[in-house]
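re: that chain from earlier
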Amino acid sequence: MKNHFLFIFLILFTSISIAKERESFLPYKVLTCEPNQELTENETEFFFYSPHLESVYFGMEVSYSVDDRIGTTRIDKQGAFSIKSTPGKHVMQLYLPDHYEIYIDSIESKAQHRISIELYWAYTELEISVDKPVIYLYPDKEMEVCVRLDGTGELNFIYPPFNTENEWKVKASPNGDLKQHGNQYRYLFWEATQENFIFPGLYYQGFYCTPSTSLSILEEICDSFGLNSQEKADLITFWGPKVQQMENSFIRVLLNEEAHRFGTLNIQPKPDHIYRIYLLVVKDPVLIEEPIEEEFPSPQFFTPIHREGFTVVEWGGTVISGAGHEKL
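^ sequence. v structure.
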């Protein structure tokens, strides 16, 4: 009997702990409830958005249910969408492809009011392969340079090897030559496996490619960003064969700060300029049946590299399947 009560206590304790843990990590946050006179006396509006992910989710379709009513909507350029309902308490479920469902229980809504809710989508797949990021160093004079890579995933391979302090220490020349322990290199190389990468979905800017157009599009990206002939040749000889083997593909370019999702660089002495270009290559993308705008997607435009002073250039990327991630 004593053990029986102990067993019941453990079940209750565990249930309470799980409930508190779920409450602590809710995938949404109610921000405001404000009057909206554009609504009728029998209407209320739920306004959802995902901060800092506007371009990531634009154009993606959200399936939802409000009590027994189901429907779909699309996310706009601000990463937002809204659902109208009647005043009162509602149970809502939101579903975005390749993400965990968001369940919202019993939020009180008032007539002619708009409730703003922040959403935190979690991708259901776990890993991607960050492929061949390479780092070029161009100091304005020959100098010793230390490069520390803080990756967001597990490093699979680096070359040349790190020193005992887990960083590269090389002698760099203005022409890009790197020397370490008597050996010469063109660039610093790394690859990693990254967990919890957010699926990019549909974009309103980027490049749709076929095998016949992929090479010219890669050349256009390199020239627009301002890669020199060596950097351009390195990028295209790596990515060109991969993209040409795909029946269709979509390339979204992440630049500079956007590339921090793959990892950050700490370089001493501090460079005057750091330029990072990462290709998100979506294999066999799912095309929307009806374009949201007349031009969908529109090409990306880049501010060219400004090579003055100590300049660092890095390129890399990953391949994502149209139905999920593809690990290379």
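Residues 127-325 form one domain.
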